[in-house]
Amino acid sequence: MSDFPGVWVLKAWVLKAWVLKAWVLKAWVLKAWVLKAWVLKAWVLKVWVLKAWILRSSISLGLLAFAALAGAGTISAQDRRQNAPGEFDFYVLSLSWSPSFCEAASERGGGGRSQIQCGGRPFSFVVHGLWPQYEHGFPDYCQRPSPRLDRNIMSSMLDLMPAPGLIFAEWDKHGTCSGLGARAYFETIRKARSAVKIPEEYLQLSEPKTVAPAEIEDAFIKANPGLSSAAIAVTCDKTRLSEVRICMGKDLQFRACEEIDRRACRRDQVEMPPVRGG
Questions:
Q1: Between residues 259 and 49, which one has the greater pLDDT?
Q2: What percent of the chain has pLDDT over 90?
Q3: Are residues 105 and 151 in the same domain?
């Protein structure tokens, strides 16, 4: 009987050790489970991130492919001929309403640079340019650097294009695409301008006029037999008439031009400032 307490203590110690072992085992299992869950979660997250990256890459590649196709479409439509001088479909003769230009220049504080056009004799419609066009788009700056324009040629055009800077700029941007030498190009501008009659009511406009763009087109069509609504477009700024653009073949005969017509002024009415001194 004297040994019983010792046996009981030993048994208690063994039980405590077993409980401790069970607790350690349970803690280890729990820790392993947590670790496994964390690894699984990290793996799932990694897979999700990878999947998102693949999706994003696919979208980017798709957008790049779309842009490439769109760019290719633009190039094939507009630049198929690689800005080769003389390789174009038709001309646009652009006639600027000079009073609108001068009024806008005065508002911008740039009237001094337009002294010949806005400070000399009064002008109504003046030539902005004669622009080679493709059926879709247009060539420009077809020779870099462009052949130097003789000042005598520039001076000879001031009656139609009363701004020296404009004449030089038009030669560099558009004239070099015509396939013509400078003298022949500006002679072509003079011929194109002489082929278009300005409606009588716009030659000496003495009072501001508010008019529908379609009315301006109709006046030009009436004054120019053979000109149709498909061959003319009126452009404007926020309030004023800007230009009348007339499409011509290389033979300077009027011809339709859908793309130019689509860029026409969509306002119901535009203002025509009067010819200065008119």
A1: 259
A2: 63
A3: yes
Q: Which two tokens stand for residue 124?
A: 């109504």
Residue 121 phi, psi dihedral angles, 5° rounding: -70, 155
Q: Token match 């477009």: residue?
A: 233
Q: Which of 103, 135, 136, 170 does the annotation list as catalytic? A: 170
> Which of 59, 211, 198 is closest to 67 using CA atoms?
59
**Cis-peptide, bond into residue 145, ω within 30° of zero:** yes
pLDDT in tens, 56-89: 554 344 443 444 434 434 343 455 677 999 999 9
Residue 163 DSSP one-character state = -
Q: Quick count: other Cβ atoms within 10 Å of Cβ 246?
A: 24
CB 146 within 8 A of CB 172: yes
136 tagged catalytic: no
Question: Within 10 Å of residue 122's Cβ, how many Cβ atoms?
Answer: 15
CA dist 149 and 171 (Å) reads 7
Domain count for the chain: 2
Q: Residues 245, 258: contact at Cβ < 8 Å?
A: no
Domain with residue 116: its CATH number is 3.90.730.10
Which residue in 103, 107, 128, 136 is the catalytic one?
128
Name the residue with tokens 């009072």.
207
User: What is the helix (H) or strand (E) element at residue 131, kind and residue range?
Assistant: strand 125-133
Quick check: 189 and 252 in contact, CB under 8 A?
Answer: no
- Are 69 and 100 found together in one domain? no
List 103, 136, 174, 187, catalytic entry: 174
Residue finishing a domain among 43, 78, 113: 78
